[in-house]
User: Which sequence fits this backbone?
RNA sequence: GGGAGGGUGGUCUAGCUUGGUAUGAUUCCUGGUUUGGGACCAGGUGGUCGGGGGUUCGAAUCCCCCCUCUCCCA
């Protein structure tokens, strides 16, 4: 360059992810225009365009997956009358402390019955289910809705991860038998693997949550924990076997083939898209900014013409030609703004655009373009007549490469321990602890509290896919172990 | 839930101790010169100092209440 660049303001990420994760994340969402926290209600966050586009793409893929598996979409009101809400005792107990209530309306003042802003939709839907479901022919009854829910969470809110309003899908299903319901739970777990591991490149593992940590009103809860590296986990979607716990109070019944009236068996499943997005950008991002799976990138190919005075037209024409070549296939953009080339590189890297094509006068004389992959920074000089095939190839493999890079070997994160002291050491060393435990029923809760206080992790539950270790005694109380559990620190 | 630190043009920031209507940079806009990894020159726009109350002739500044953000520890 002709001019020596003076110190320019750094508009990109300045905080290292490894050294200061919190600072890095805050800077990422601010500088990449993902969220704006200046909206002045605590825990209520504006999702900016770039995040919204990706979240919509995540929704679309998830919804299609659910529909392919026989779920039909519906839309529910966001207010729930208190009388519905109070029908199932455990559910009320679990959610009441977190409910936002609407108590007044318009100029007429107080409402006769206060209305809950839904924290989840069981109590809204199941009233309707009891009207809609009449016979075994209506079953299985599989539905989902995409919506916002509101929960008055504790004080530490964080954009995408934990807010008082969040965006999710909830699927609610009714079956004739417990076995079918359990199969739905398994299907939900498979769906989670397809969406989060395969599509979002997040390493996850499913645990059956202990009794004291399950969804209020559920028989059992199965939750995906994402392995965020260094032994920390974050809870992602959970699926719940409800049994007949809601069917009875909400009168969800059907006439069976034998002519008798029976209660249905229910399940529900709640993938929170805002949190899935948060986990994905936090896990995949690097010190240059966002890294996104190919299908979730708002712009997939950015073309940057390198413009020199007197040679603008030839370069812009070539950029335009490339644009037209790809526009039907990918989300593609030519950045022909007045910014310097370097600024453009930083800008689009910060926003996680998977493929960058640079085209300048030098390339034109050589009949080539320069191609850079975002996730690993690899740079290629590609002959013009091979460019379409070359980009198609990157597009096809990009998410796969990202996934392979991102998968953590669960076993390598785990340390098998037999006594409390070694558990403490393992947790401090950033490991997930695998140990014997007296019980994940309520009688094991006191031991779990000890784990929380003294070991410094949470009992995540029993592994769903396999239980390989045999332990004689509980890590804490030394009573005979009934199960193997995993303990981890969590976000 | 406990603790700490913040909030001043879009962004970052000086001023606050010791009260007198706000400093600088950057962004943005106009014009010009530029563009292969964070260019430059000139001019211009932009602020109810988070909100409310109090003290005072006078409050960004002192006092009280509230809202909100960030970080750390359960």
Assistant:
């Amino acid at each position: 360059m002709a001019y020596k660049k003076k110190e320019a303001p750094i508009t990109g990420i300045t905080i290292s992810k490894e050294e200061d994760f919190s600072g890095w994340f805050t800077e990422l969402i601010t500088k990449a225009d993902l969220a704006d926290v200046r909206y002045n209600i605590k825990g209520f966050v504006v999702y900016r365009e770039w995040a919204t586009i990706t979240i919509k793409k995540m929704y679309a893929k998830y919804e299609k997956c659910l529909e392919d598996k026989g779920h039909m979409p519906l839309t529910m009101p966001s207010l729930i009358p208190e009388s519905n809400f109070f029908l199932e005792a455990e559910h009320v107990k679990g959610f009441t402390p977190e409910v936002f209530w609407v108590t007044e309306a318009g100029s007429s003042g107080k409402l006769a019955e206060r209305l809950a802003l839904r924290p989840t939709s069981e109590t809204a839907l199941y009233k309707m289910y009891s009207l809609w479901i009449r016979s075994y022919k209506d079953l299985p009854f599989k539905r989902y809705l995409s919506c916002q829910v509101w929960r008055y969470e504790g004080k530490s809110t964080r954009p995408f991860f934990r807010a008082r309003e969040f965006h999710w899908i909830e699927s609610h299903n009714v079956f004739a038998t417990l076995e079918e319901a359990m199969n739905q739970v398994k299907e939900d777990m498979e769906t989670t693997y397809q969406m989060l591991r395969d599509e979002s490149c997040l390493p996850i593992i499913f645990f059956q949550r202990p009794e004291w940590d399950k969804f209020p009103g559920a028989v059992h809860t199965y939750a995906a924990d994402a392995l965020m590296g260094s032994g920390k986990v974050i809870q992602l979607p959970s699926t719940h076997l409800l049994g007949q716990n809601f069917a009875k109070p909400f009168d969800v019944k059907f006439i069976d083939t034998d002519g008798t009236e029976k209660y249905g068996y229910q399940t529900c499943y709640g993938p929170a898209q805002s949190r899935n997005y948060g986990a994905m950008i936090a896990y995949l991002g690097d010190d240059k900014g966002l890294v996104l799976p190919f299908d979730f990138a708002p712009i997939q190919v950015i073309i940057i013409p390198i413009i020199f005075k007197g040679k603008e037209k030839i370069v812009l024409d070539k950029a335009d030609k490339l644009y037209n070549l790809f526009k039907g296939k990918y989300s593609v953009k030519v950045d022909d703004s007045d910014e310097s080339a370097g600024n453009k590189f930083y800008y689009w890297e910060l926003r996680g655009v998977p493929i960058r094509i640079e085209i300048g006068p030098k390339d034109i004389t050589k009949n080539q373009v320069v191609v850079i992959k975002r996730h690993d920074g690899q740079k290629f000089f590609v002959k013009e007549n091979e460019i379409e095939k070359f980009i198609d190839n990157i597009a096809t493999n990009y998410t796969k490469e990202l996934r392979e890079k991102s998968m953590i070997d669960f076993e390598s994160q785990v340390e098998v321990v037999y006594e409390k002291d070694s558990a403490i050491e393992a947790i401090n060393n950033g490991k997930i602890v695998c140990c014997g435990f007296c019980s994940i029923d309520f009688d094991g809760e006191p031991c779990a509290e000890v784990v929380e206080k003294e070991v410094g992790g949470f009992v995540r539950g029993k592994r769903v896919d396999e239980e390989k270790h045999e332990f004689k005694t509980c890590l804490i109380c030394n009573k005979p172990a009934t199960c193997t559990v995993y303990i981890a620190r969590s976000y």
Notes: Chain A is about 35% helix and 25% strand. The longest helix of chain A spans residues 178-199. The first strand of chain A starts at residue 35 and ends at 36.
